[in-house]
Amino acid sequence: MPSRSHELFEAAKRRIPGGVNSPVRAFRSVGGEPFFIESASGCRVRDVDGKEYIDYVGTWGPAILGHAPAVVIEAVREAAGCGLSFGIPNPLEVEMAETICRLVPSVERVRMVNSGTEATMSCIRLARGFTGRDRIIKFEGCYHGHVDSLLVKAGSGALTHGRPDSAGVPAALAALTVALPFNDLDAVAAAFARDGREIAAIIVEPVPANAGLYLPEPGFLEGLRALCDAHDTLLIFDEVMTGFRLAPGGYQELCGVRPDLTALGKVIGGGLPVGAFGGRADIMDHLSPDGPVYQAGTLSGNPLALAAGLAQLRELERRDGWEALEALGAAFEAAVRETISGRPLTFHRIGSMFCLYFTEGPVRNLADALRSDRAAFNRYFHACLDAGVYFAPSQFEAGFLSLGHTADDIAATNRITRAALQE
Ligand code: KE4
Q1: Is any ligand 1 atom within 6 A of the Cβ of residue 145?
Q2: What per-residue confidence (pLDDT) applies to 366?
Q3: What is the distance in A from the centroid of ligand 1 to the CA of 252?
Q4: Sheet strands side by side (includes 353-357)
Q5: Would you say the CB of residue 120 lies under 6 angstroms from ligand 1?
Q6: From the candidates 47, 238, 260, 409, which is the catalytic residue?
Q7: With 0-12 CB in 10 A as exposed, 13-18 as middle and 19+ as buried, what is 132?
Q8: Does residue 51 carry a catalytic annotation?
Q9: pLDDT tens across the length of the chain (423 residues)
Q10: Which of 25, 58, 289, 326 is the most exposed place for a label (fewest CB within 10 A)?
Q11: Which of the four CATH numbers 3.40.640.10, 2.10.260.10, 1.10.275.10, 2.60.130.10 does domain 70-317 have?
């Protein structure tokens, strides 16, 4: 008797490319078929065949309180009663803008959009419009959404499916993007020596989490800041995943490096479609209708997404969620390190984000991450899934803890991962 998920996947493949609305969901790199979800609550998701999993994907970051938190559901319900979309300024847009600028001091002005891709795409166009320059520097393995200029040696699904350089991006456009190894400041300095006055911006995930998860080495981000200052180039932090998760003010609060622009998303939508970009007022004031750089969106500032995001942020602040997430992350890490000791595995964690690489370390950049034994990862992924733990279906993604995970969930997960590594 085929499962309901299988039946749905067969139907989906007839009408949706690959049967999914986002490639990483297709299980192509890990093999097998994706399960279809029926509901989610706390740290658990339930598939259409009634099986439950402890979820460490958390819809790729937004579910920081766990799935379907009551405060967010109630906020959406209340907002929906007043209307679903207006295309007219609404008070929540002011509250969200003031909240983002309060939590992320480098953001003096901010504009809401509907995805992380829109946020980074707008940052790139704004940087080019503000500087009058065309070149962009990004880092191999970093993923900034499916923006033409940034689908060059990209991470996440592009890397997972072996197409870091997407078809359909004009060669002339891709040639304006220089992709360099992360943590290699000499390579960045050399690029500036060659193209300095043509480089509009550097865009970087300050903590790359789309080739697994690895960390900036001391001085790297500071070095990017200095090189940008020396060449009047803008520094863009893509904090779509790290923003409001690693700290109220994102990773820039922890590292003390002040970017000129920041891309945001995920947590501030509470699970509804959202993105945001912001930064120095003198740069942001170049945006239409004040300035010459055009950017727009029918659903930007949507009242339901903002109600959800504001409720989530208020709850995080009320519970001092970041401290709780760090304690949870430390307990999770202790359990994992005990389980993997003596094995050729590398575990990285920062706050509530983590990755287990199936290779010996160090893992400092994409080239190191690519040494991972994907067959071993795939066996581990499926052994965990069969036993009721859902990790990201790719070695090149990060895992997420939430306030919906408990010590018991971590203990249960540890028993399952320990058994999975024996297989
Ligand atoms: P979206 O356009 O998918 O909302 O955001 C793009 C994006 C931008 N910047 C960073 C740092 C991101 O991680 C993302 C999207 N994250 C992936 C997960 N690695 C989304 C998952 C997917 O593509 O389905």
Answers
A1: yes
A2: 97
A3: 19
A4: 346-350, 353-357, 399-400
A5: yes
A6: 238
A7: exposed
A8: no
A9: 899 999 999 999 999 999 999 999 999 999 999 999 999 999 999 999 999 999 999 999 999 999 999 999 999 999 999 999 999 999 999 999 999 999 999 999 999 999 999 999 999 999 999 999 999 999 999 999 999 999 998 999 988 888 888 999 999 999 999 999 999 999 999 999 999 899 999 999 999 999 999 999 999 999 999 999 999 999 999 999 999 999 999 999 999 999 999 999 999 999 999 999 999 999 999 999 999 999 999 999 999 999 999 999 999 999 999 999 999 999 999 999 999 999 999 999 999 999 999 999 999 999 999 999 999 999 999 999 999 999 999 999 999 999 999 999 999 999 999 999 987
A10: 289
A11: 3.40.640.10
Contact 304, 79 (CB under 8 A): yes
Active site annotation includes 251? no
Q: ∠ at Cα 160 (154, 165), nearest 5°? A: 35
Question: Alpha-carbon distance 301 to 92, whole Å?
Answer: 8
CA atoms within 13 A of residue 311's CA, in its CB half-sphere: 24
Residue closest by Cα to atom 21 of ligand 1? 60
Element (H, E) at 126: helix 116-131
CATH 3.50.50.60, domain 4-68+319-422, yes or no? no
How many Å lie between the centroid of ligand 1 and the Cα of residue 143?
A: 7
Sole residue written with tokens 């360099």:
180
- The C-alpha atoms of residue 383 and residue 70 are separated, in whole angstroms, by 32
Q: Which of 29, 156, 272 best tests ligand 1's pocket when mutated (most atoms within 8 Å of CB)?
A: 156
Instruction: Show me where the domains of the chain are located.
Output: 4-68+319-422, 70-317
DSSP 153: S
Pick the atom of ligand 1 nearest to 242's CA: 11
How buried is 82 (Cβ within 10 angstroms: 0-12 exposed, 13-18 middle, 19+ buried)?
Answer: exposed
Q: What is the pLDDT of residue 196?
A: 84
Decide: 271 in ligand 1 pocket, CB within 6 A.
no
- Ligand 1 proximity of 242 Cβ (cutoff 6 Å): no
